[in-house]
Each structure stands twice: as C-alpha cells, then as structure tokens.
UniProtKB/TrEMBL annotation:
This is Family 31 glycosyl hydrolase, alpha-glucosidase. Pfam families: DUF5110 (PF17137), Glyco_hydro_31_2nd (PF01055), Glyco_hydro_31_3rd (PF21365). Residues 678-764 form the Glycosyl hydrolase family 31 C-terminal domain. It comes from the Bacteria. The keyword Hydrolase applies. Residues 780-849 form the DUF5110 domain. It comes from Flavobacterium seoulense. Belongs to the glycosyl hydrolase 31 family. Residues 355-668 form the Glycoside hydrolase family 31 TIM barrel domain. GO terms for biological process: carbohydrate metabolic process. GO terms for molecular function: carbohydrate binding; hydrolase activity, hydrolyzing O-glycosyl compounds.
Length: 880
C-alpha cells in the first residue's frame, strides 16, 4: 500500500512541469461571454455581474456535470471588449479583465484601475488523467499575491489558522472539516474555485517519506461515535521518522497526511521542535501549518496511530496562491471584485439567497447525546420551564429508532410510545422539536430493504445515492410520510452528510454513471436540497431549519446551518472552533454553530470539575455571540443545572442576554436574507486596511455593532483586546466607557464576562427577558444609542415562523442617529405589515455613557417615545 502511495506522489510531482500552449490566436465576443482561442484550447470569460467574471478553460468546452453552484437567474452585465498589440480587455463597470496575448495569463483591475489579482504566467495547468476508468483532467491555476495580502476562507478547518496565505489545505469533507473552495482577500476580491471534487489549496509537492520506528506510549481504549453508533476502539501510538533537506532559509508550508480516512492525533516535530500537536477522538486525515526552516538537512518525527501510513509534504512559501483539482473536465473559477460585503452579496445573488431562519432557531437550542426515552425528553423539557431557563428548541439525537434499525424513519415504541403526543406536549410548553435523520439507512431494516431492492444506495455502502433523482425522491417520500406528516416535527438534523468515511471515493454514483470523485465534496448539498425542497412542498407554511454536518458553496439557499462536528472540549479545541467558524463564514455561508462545551467531554467528572466548568462557561459565552446558541455533548446530560448552582446562574445570565438581544439578532438575520449580510464577521469585513485587526485570530464583529473578543485561555481575569482603527472609537459594553480605536486595551474578563465592545454610532434594540422567543409582544423596546458617529439600524419584524415575508408581510422601522445634530430619527414604517404587527408601541431611548446604558439589565430611560409608524425626531439634550 505504501508503494502505491509513492507512485501517486511521483505522478503529482510531474504536474508543475506540464504547461500547454497559451498564446492567444484570436477572440470572439458573444452575448454572454468572450471566447479566447489559444494555441491549444479555448478560454471562456463570462461576465456574471458588474464585479464578477467566470473563467473557464478546456481543450474542448463540454461538460456532463450539472451546474450546482451558479443556479440563480440574473441579468447579465454590459461589457465592452477592446484589443491592443499586447492584450485583450473585457471591461464591466466595476471590474476589467486583461488577457496577455503572449502568455494567455489573466489579470484583474478594480473600478479604480488598480490590479488586485493576476494569474502566474505558465501557471495554468491542464493535464490528461483518468478516474475509475473515465477520462478527466488534472487542473491547476497559480495566482500572484501581494506581500502584505491576507487571505481567509476555504471553509471550516481544525488547523487553527485564520490567515491562510501560503498555507496548504486539502479540501475534502470529513467529520469536523467542511471544504468550501472560496477565498477572500484583504486586497478587495474573492475567488471561488469551481470544482466539486477534492481540491488542493497551495499544494505542497515535496515529499518526506517516513519509516515506522516502533510504538510509543500506552494503548488506550476510548468510546467513539461511528456510523454504527457508539463503539470502543483501542488506540496505540506509533512513531514514524524521516529526513529532508531545504536549499534556503525561509518559511515553509507543511502538510501532514496520516494515510487513513480519519486521524486520531496530529503530532509532528522537526529537529526536536514541536510544529504540530493536537488530538481528538476523530480528526481529519490531513492538517497543515507554517514553519521557519534554515537551509540544510532536517529530521522529522511524526507520532500517530500505529496503523497510520503518514506522509509529510512541504514547499517554500512564496507570494502565490495555487488551486489544484485532480479530477476535472475543465479549469473553472470565478473572481469577485470589491470589499467582503460586496463580494458575498454578488456571490449570493448568483448562487441563491439565504432564506430567513425561523425566529425560534435564534433562541437557545438544547442538545445532548441523547434522550433515551420520551419520558426522559419531556422531563428535561419541563425542568427548563420550571427552572425559568429560556429555551426554544430541544433536539432528539440518534437511535430513537431502536430495534427497527439505523435511521429506519420510525420511532421504537418501547422508547417513544407516542411521538405525536410528545411533540404536542412540547408545543404546549412553547418548545419545538428537532429530530436527527441520517442519509444512511440500515440495509436490514424494512426501509433499507426497499432502498436496496431499488438500488438506491451508493454501491457497497449504506448511504443513499442522492445523486440519483429517483433515490432522492424516494428518500423524501419516506421522510415525509413516516416523520414529517404524522408528528408535526419542527426542525431537522441531517447528520454525517460528508458522507462520513469519504465514501464516494472509488464508487460510481447515479446508477453507476458517474465516478464518485467528480462529486466528492457536494453530497451535503444534494441532501439539504432534497430535504429543503420537500419541506417547502409538503409543509409550505412552516419555515425550514436544517442543521447539518457538512456544506458546500450555494448550500445557503437550502436554509441549512452547519456545526463543527465531533470536537473535544479543551482550550485549544475552543480556539480552533473560532478560527474554523470565521473562515467558514467568510465564504458566504452565514449559519454556523458548534457543540458548546465540546462534544467529547471528560465523563462523569465533568459535573463536579471546576476546570471543566470554567471551560464550559467560556464556550457558552462564545455560543451566545454565534449565529446559533447551542449546547451538545457525548454521553452527557448537558442540562445546566447538573453542573451546580454557579454554572446554572452564569448560563442563565447568557441565556437572558441572548434573548434580550433577539430584536438585534433577528434584524441581522433579515439583513442576511434581504441584503446578503453576514452575522459572524471576521475583521477583514469591516477593517480590511487595519493590518493589526487582520492579525487578530480570536476577535470578530457580531453584526454591525458588537466587537467580540472571547476568552479562550484558562484562569483569566483580564484580557487584551485590540480595538480596530475606527475614528469615532468604541464603548465597553459592560462599563459604558469610551475608547479610541487603533489600540490594545486591558479588559476586565472575569468568568462572568466576555470582553465586548460596541462601535460608536451603533443603535441596538433590546427586548425583555423571555422564556421563549414569542412569549411577549415587543411593545416596549429599549433602544441603546452609542453616540460619537453617525449610525443607522433597521428593526425588522415579521410573523417569525412562515414564508409570508416573501410576499411582503413584514415591518422595517429605520433608526438613524445624526452626530452633528444630536438627533435620533425613527423613520416611517416600511413593509405591508403582518398578522400580529404592533401598531402602537413604546421605544425607550437610552444614550449610553459611563453612568447609564451598560450591561445586560434594563437601563434608565432617557426619553420614551410613542411610535405609531410615522416619522419621529428625538433631540438629545446636552446634559444627558
């Protein structure tokens, strides 16, 4: 097996030497694109928007692969084509593409005429290959990057890096890792690499072959989750050693591949210095980092699981970015010009808007693995209400199917005797139920035998072949008839949609017509599409909410949120969830969460261990300022009260905080849907020109107002927070004190406090404390105004649970603060209105300062305003 791997490596090493004739021979302008004829092959440049162009290259421009990402019908932009002795220009209003006639290389200019991205000459690779006996091509494109450029994206990875410039990543879908082939640059552009299979980002082609050097440490037995439920696995460390040499000093990119479908630990040392060290019950098979090396020979040691077959790849870091896909029929990528918001807006216009989540999805979501019976679930639900702990959605994880077999879409009546009554009882408590439904079905179950007889499985697996439309339709028919219609369940947890075990590799899909490698990364999109479209058809009056473990570009249009999978609970894991979430969010997919407290937990000691309690509370503070607030845990009773009075009280504080912020959060959710906004915002989105802000790995904006700097280390009482350059400064949310931007400040950060600042000019609506999202009509809202700069906010409201908003049934109330005039204007209500609209209400205006308007509790009202939908101007007095 190891010999085969080396052959493959040698083959890959040949790729960069294979270049094809790229001299321009001529061009033709068509209605929707420009076709450039090269010495070999054709280059198609298709303007998609005023700031967006799609680039496709092939020897013959044909494709049997469906169009999955760019599905929206949009008006094509006007574009002009001009020619000079040296090049051809395609110009739109916000972007120009220049084709160099000698090299065929492309460069891109923004509306100011400044080059922001350029292909490397001879950086376009197109090499014949095959997969499962079918012809394909290995495609690669290299780009020049600027020395001071910062890059983000490629999805959710567990390597701990936020700025990924120069970093190698292998883009595959596995538990805890979500591959999105999209990057965002601090230089004002985004790039989507349009390939549905494995992609290597910045591939490192130099190889260190490692040899086994014995075993290390004691063997341990752990309980782990698998596609067959909980299993015991005995693990023994193995040690692998190798040598390599580099010719010059510099920074080097390192990629470790453990050689199995999942890793158990990543540990790598170079010359005795630890470069990588991270472990979890499950990890992706590859990880990467950057390391400074001196010219000469180096010793490398990898400690892994003894059955691993690890290989280390390396390359010198240069100012270039490279994408390579080993299975393709054409080279295909899309460039977006503009700042991050402009890029994401264009991306969503072309790939599909993100539907509005139901308002109850933005309250607290309670999970555990798992409620074992109907009584168990209802008893815990009642306890939330009895203890006055807010909660909107409770989740039933796997194995409720019991004796009927894995995901048989049937409740075992010995465990859940009356699911319809259970859901009804939850609804009477103003709670909703989410149910785990897999894409895998036990072949021995009644349902599985039906799927098997119809040949609806991916061959030699128990995963449904969603690429086959008949299989997808039958899956939905079964889902709808067996679960949706009988029980009135509210939300759906589509687990393991990678699919787990990377099970498309080496298998033909869609009735044996397509190599799985061609579609290796898009299985989760097919699953969520099937469920979303089915729900819209069969339950048209209920907003869809899908939680799933994997995703791909365009999946935002299917009302799906993702979470980070089966992660651990330690501090380093917490840090890595934050960088993972920010790099996922910047790819244009807005809904993300994680298992607060970690999925794999310390066992029974967790209920009394003060150190775990500290970690849990820091996880939960971060969850409060994540798109979804959610707790989960393996073999754990995750309810707050089980950890003692202190944990329960602190958790209640942040539950109350979340619910008071719902008017703000729901308005930001509407901004996602209507204006293509982003809720969890890496600092590149608002401070792209502030180098120090771009270097902050653990800070981000939560909507337009909040700068969040979660504590991600043990034993902290004070936390350094960098306040980005912002002329009008920042307010400490907890004290009301104002600070100038562009400085690092020591911030009080006791266990009760997440460091939190508010941008000057922000307007934040805060509601009352509630037990569930629709407990009280928002007749009285506290409106906090953070003066110092002009500011705007749009308060969005609708019915919260249906799609009437698509027909205009909503209300938008604009607020605008004018710093010069010291006036707050509450504008005329917009929208058609809706059932439950509050026509007459009270806005309690609070001018925030060090004596008023800080912290979670209600502030002292400075001005009460009766609002009936018409324009009102409120003057701030000088002494307020």
């Amino acid at each position: 097996m190891k010999k085969m791997k080396q052959v493959t490596i040698l083959f890959v090493l040949l790729i960069p030497t294979f270049c094809i004739g790229q001299v321009v021979k001529g061009y033709k302008k068509q209605n929707d694109k420009v076709v450039i004829t090269l010495e070999k092959g054709e280059l198609h440049l298709s303007p998609l928007a005023e700031n967006t162009v799609r680039v496709q290259y092939a020897l013959e421009m044909k494709s049997q692969i469906p169009e999955l990402v760019f599905t929206s019908k949009v008006n094509l932009p006007d574009f002009k084509v001009s020619e000079s002795n040296s090049g051809i220009e395609i110009a739109m209003s916000k972007m120009t593409v220049l084709v160099d006639k000698k090299s065929g290389a492309l460069s891109y200019r923004n509306h100011e005429g400044k080059v922001f991205l350029s292909e490397k000459p001879e950086g376009r690779i197109f090499k014949p290959s095959s997969v499962q006996g079918e012809p394909c091509h290995i495609v690669e494109q290299g780009f020049n990057t600027l020395p001071d450029e910062y890059l983000y994206g490629t999805g959710q990875f567990q390597d701990g890096h936020l700025n990924i410039k120069g970093l190698p990543r292998r883009l595959t879908q596995v538990n805890t890792q979500i591959a999105i082939p999209f990057i965002m640059s601090s230089k004002g552009y985004g790039l989507l690499w349009h390939n549905y299979g494995l992609t290597d980002f910045n591939p490192a082609d130099n190889v260190v072959n490692l040899n086994p050097a014995g075993i290390s440490g004691e063997s341990i037995t752990v309980a782990v989750t698998t596609t067959n439920g909980t299993q015991k696995e005995t693990r023994q460390d193995g040690v692998f050693t190798g040598k390599f040499a580099v010719k010059e000093n510099g920074e080097y990119a390192i990629l470790l591949d453990v050689g199995q479908k999942m890793a158990r630990k990543w540990q790598l040392t170079i010359d005795g210095k630890e470069v990588i060290n991270f472990k979890n019950h499950w990890l992706p098979p590859t990880t990467s980092t950057l390391a400074k090396l001196t010219a000469g020979k180096h010793d490398i040691v990898v400690t892994a699981e003894k059955n691993d077959l690890p290989v280390v790849y390396y390359r010198k870091v240069t100012n270039e970015t490279v994408f390579r896909s080993p299975v393709a029929n054409k080279l295909d990528y899309v460039v977006f010009a503009g700042n991050s918001d402009e890029v994401i807006s264009s991306y969503r216009n072309l790939t599909g808007k993100a539907p509005l989540m139901p308002i109850w999805a933005l309250g607290y979501i309670h999970c555990r693995e798992r409620f074992t019976t109907q009584d168990d679930l209802l008893e815990n639900a009642k306890a939330f209400r009895d203890k006055k702990l807010p909660m909107d959605l409770i989740v039933q994880d796997w194995q409720y199917w019991g004796k009927y077999g894995w995901n048989s879409m049937k409740f075992d009546e010995d465990l859940f005797p009356d699911p319809a009554a259970m859901v009804k009882e939850l609804h009477q408590m103003n709670m909703r139920l989410m149910l785990s439904v897999w894409s895998k079905i036990d072949k021995e179950s009644v349902l599985g035998k039906e799927f098997n007889n119809k040949k609806y499985y991916i061959p030699n697996t128990e995963w449904v072949d969603f690429f086959n439309p008949d299989a997808a339709n039958y899956y939905w028919k079964s889902f709808s008839e067996k679960l949706l219609k009988p029980y009135e369940i509210d939300a759906w947890w589509q687990d393991a949609t990678e699919p787990e075990n990377d099970d498309l590799v080496g298998r033909k899909i869609n009735n044996g017509t397509t190599p799985g490698e061609q579609m290796r990364n898009v299985y989760p999109m097919y699953v969520t599409k099937t469920v979303y479209e089915g729900l819209r058809k069969d339950a048209p009056d209920k907003r869809v909410f899908i939680l799933t473990r994997s995703g791909f570009s365009g999946q935002q249009r299917y009302a799906s949120a993702v979470w980070t999978g089966d992660v651990g609970n330690d501090w380093e894991t917490l840090r890595r969830q934050l960088t993972a979430g920010l790099n996922y969010s910047i790819t244009g997919l807005p809904w993300w969460t994680f298992d607060a407290g970690g999925f794999f937990r310390p066992g029974k000691s967790q209920y009394t261990d003060a150190k775990f309690h500290e970690r849990f509370l820091r996880w939960f503070q971060l969850a409060t300022f994540s798109p979804l607030q959610r707790v989960h845990g393996y073999e754990t009773n995750t309810e707050f009260w089980r950890y003692g009075e202190k944990v329960e009280a602190e958790s209640l504080k942040y539950l109350n905080f979340r619910y008071r912020l719902l008017p703000y959060i729901y308005s930001q959710a509407a901004d996602i849907t209507f204006k293509n906004g982003t809720l969890m915002r890496p600092l590149i989105m608002d401070f792209a020109n502030d180098i120090k802000a771009l270097e902050q790995k653990y800070e981000y904006m939560f909507g337009s107002a909040f700068l969040v700097a979660p504590v991600v280390s043990e034993g902290v009482e004070n936390w350094k927070v960098y306040l980005p350059e912002n002329q009008s400064g920042w307010f400490n949310f907890w004290t009301g004190k104002q600070y100038k931007g562009g400085q690092t400040v020591q911030t009080a950060a006791s266990l009760s406090t997440i460091p939190l600042y508010v941008k000057s000019g922000s307007i934040i609506p805060m509601g009352e404390k509630m037990q569930y999202t629709n407990e009280k009509p928002a007749e009285n809202l506290e409106i906090r105004v953070y003066t110092g700069a002009n500011g705007k906010f749009e308060l969005y409201e609708d019915e919260g649970t249906n799609y009437n908003y698509e027909k205009g049934a909503f209300s938008i109330i604009p607020f605008e603060w004018n710093e010069e005039k010291q006036t707050l204007t509450i504008g005329k209500r917009k929208g058609k209105g809706f059932n439950g609209l509050i026509k007459n209400r009270l806005f309690n205006i609070v001018w925030v300062n060090e004596s008023n308007g800080f912290g979670i509790e209600n502030a002292k009202t400075n001005v009460s305003v009766k609002y009936n939908g018409n324009n009102i101007v409120v003057q701030k007095n000088k002494n307020e």
